[in-house]
């Protein structure tokens, strides 16, 4: 998985890069992304060819007439793009959203699963 | 106290960090509570005529375990976030950017904020605190008899 967020997003609307953890085990990859303020409906996950795009809009319930005085999150949008490698199966990605954390499970394709080779002694 | 940047490769937060480091190296009287900007959780603070609004971007917490205290006009948000990284040594960690561990952030409230009238909500990983301003501090029109 390589990250290409900064290269491909010029000219698109501004977005911040959400922090992620990517963990690989024998059967697939687990990705966690911090997307605080993004509800299930504002999350946009896409896979085109070998590109995985995670995008989310922040929606906050702000009272009327709110004057910001100190702002650390100034862009209400997250975006991050990853290139999937061939052994991953994009059709079986499972996504879960919990308290602003996205968890993606990307399994490896059947043929890429580890296999123990039996050695026969003759 | 230093925090891991919430957003990786954010050039402004990196510049901020540099500035903070320089500031701490050369400033003879740094703020007693350090320079919290850019840590976990990120904070947005604002106000209306009736209230002070604080948004803490704190994803992945158990709302029961977030501690919010107001003591003499100082609001403290603290808690702990568990790591998502596996203990299993066979798993390979390719990217590890998310914050894990204990955190604590402190905000000085304006004098007219009423510590007895606070509402707190945790939704989609954002803790929203709304602190009402005291009645006596609200703008008021004075009738002339």
Structure description:
- The complex is a heterodimer of chains A (122) and B (145).
- Chain A has 122 residues and is mostly beta strands.
- Chain A has one domain: Sandwich (Immunoglobulin-like).
- Chain A has 1 helix and 9 strands; from the N terminus they run E-H-E-E-E-E-E-E-E-E.
- In chain A, the strands form 2 sheets. In chain A, strands 1-7-5-4 form a 4-stranded antiparallel β-sheet. A 4-stranded antiparallel β-sheet of chain A has the order 2-3-9-8, with no helix packed on it.
- The longest helix of chain A has 4 residues.
- The radius of gyration of chain A is 19 Å and the shape is elongated.
- With 145 residues, chain B is mainly beta.
- Chain B has 2 domains: 38 residues, no CATH class; 83 residues, Immunoglobulin-like.
- Helices cover 11% and strands 40% of the residues of chain B.
- In chain B, a hairpin with a 3-residue loop joins strand 1 and strand 2.
- Chains A and B meet through strand 2, strand 3 and strand 6 of A and strand 1, strand 2, strand 5 and strand 8 of B.
- Strand 2 of chain A pairs antiparallel with strand 5 of chain B.
Round the mean pLDDT of chain B to the nearest integer and report it: 82
Number of helices of chain B: 1
Count of DSSP-assigned helices of chain A: 1
Overall pLDDT of chain A, averaged?
86
Strand content of chain A: 35-45%
Anisotropy-based shape of chain A: elongated
In quaternary terms, these chains amount to heterodimer
Structure summary, number of beta strands of chain A: 9
Helix fraction of chain B, binned, reads 10-25%
Largest sheet of chain A: 4 strands, antiparallel
- The value of Rg of chain A in angstroms is 19 Å
What shape does the CA trace of chain B take?
elongated
Secondary-structure element string of chain B: HEEEEEEEE
Trace the largest sheet of chain B across and list its strands: 1-2-8-7
Task: Give a short overview.
The complex is a heterodimer of chains A (122) and B (145). Chain A is built from one helix and nine strands, in the order E-H-E-E-E-E-E-E-E-E.
């Amino acid at each position: 998985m390589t990250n290409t967020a900064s290269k491909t997003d010029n000219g698109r609307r501004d977005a911040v890069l959400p922090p992620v953890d990517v963990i690989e085990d024998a059967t697939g990859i687990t990705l966690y992304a911090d997307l605080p303020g993004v509800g299930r409906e504002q999350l946009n996950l896409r896979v085109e060819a070998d590109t995985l795009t995670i995008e989310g809009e922040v929606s906050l319930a702000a009272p009327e007439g709110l004057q910001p005085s100190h702002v650390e999150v100034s862009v209400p949008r997250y975006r991050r793009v990853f290139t999937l490698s061939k052994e991953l199966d994009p059709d079986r990605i499972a996504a879960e959203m919990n308290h602003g954390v996205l968890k993606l499970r990307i399994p490896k394709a059947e043929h890429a699963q580890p296999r123990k080779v039996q050695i026969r002694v003759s | 106290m230093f925090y891991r940047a919430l957003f990786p490769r954010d050039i402004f937060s990196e510049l901020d960090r540099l500035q903070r480091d320089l500031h701490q190296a050369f400033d003879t009287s740094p703020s007693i509570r350090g320079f919290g900007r850019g840590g976990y959780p990120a904070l947005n603070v604002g106000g209306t005529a009736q209230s002070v609004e604080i948004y803490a971007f704190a994803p992945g917490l158990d709302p029961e375990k977030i501690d919010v205290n107001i003591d003499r006009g100082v609001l403290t948000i603290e808690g702990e976030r568990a790591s998502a990284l596996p203990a299993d040594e066979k798993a390979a960690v390719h990217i590890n950017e998310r914050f894990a561990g204990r955190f604590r952030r402190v905000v000085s409230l304006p004098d007219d904020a009423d510590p007895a009238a606070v509402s707190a909500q945790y939704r989609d990983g954002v803790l929203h605190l709304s602190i009402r301003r005291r009645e006596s501090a609200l703008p008021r029109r004075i009738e002339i008899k």
